[in-house]
């Protein structure tokens, strides 16, 4: 078999595997759009549910999801980026750092319901926050930190060593080099990891089930110590707990949640593309 034949066979196999992965995803998205698009209108997006959640809209759940996503970003992003900078630029390659990186990989694979139970014990009960936005944000923030730390560290390590060498040779300090040279060049990868981590947090049900989500709460929260509705939990409730719920409302809620998460992914892709064009390498 010639090299060209091997190359063609490899391309064919990869194309088939990609189709096996992508086509079912497209079919699922298309089915959700087909079943739910009839329910999505201005009233659905801007009004509170009524009549046992079988009528009205999902506005409190949308607002709650946005609040929790922002809370997750505030909790996790500064700590995650600071940890990634320390691991990539200050910590040496020793047994401790290798154990830390191994721990992050393992934490990233823990089921989300375990984080929910941890948040219940640590923040709802021990810290005394109760079921509240702050408890949910802290839980989601801890859940997303391993992914954001790993992606941010990889982005920082991917910056060529020449940036560090030239900056230090011109008299800049270690921190000045990191702040003015390394982070701007690593920003596309850091932002991508942050947004993808927030997308995962926005679609999770188990962590908010124990820490923040309310079954039915038509009014908006007034403080970070209040409960709130959220799209993932609201979808679970109307799909399993509400008899007589119209199917179009269930799929309409799923479509809005899917659109929210896909929007974050699209934003990550656009930001990565734009920032890569601004890089100097």
Provide the descriptors you would attach to this structure in a database record.
single chain, 281 residues, mainly alpha, MetI-like fold, two-stranded antiparallel ribbon, 11 helices, 2 strands, globular
Q: What does this 3D model show about the protein?
A:
The mean pLDDT is 89. The two termini are 39 Å apart. A hairpin with a 4-residue loop joins strand 1 and strand 2. This protein has a single domain, classed as MetI-like (MetI-like fold, Orthogonal Bundle), CATH 1.10.3720.10. The protein has a two-stranded antiparallel sheet with strand order 1-2. Helix 3 runs antiparallel to helix 8 and helix 6 crosses helix 8. The relative contact order is 0.15. By secondary structure, it is mostly helical. 75% of the residues lie in helices and 1% in strands. The chain has eleven helices and two strands; from the N terminus they run ααββααααααααα.
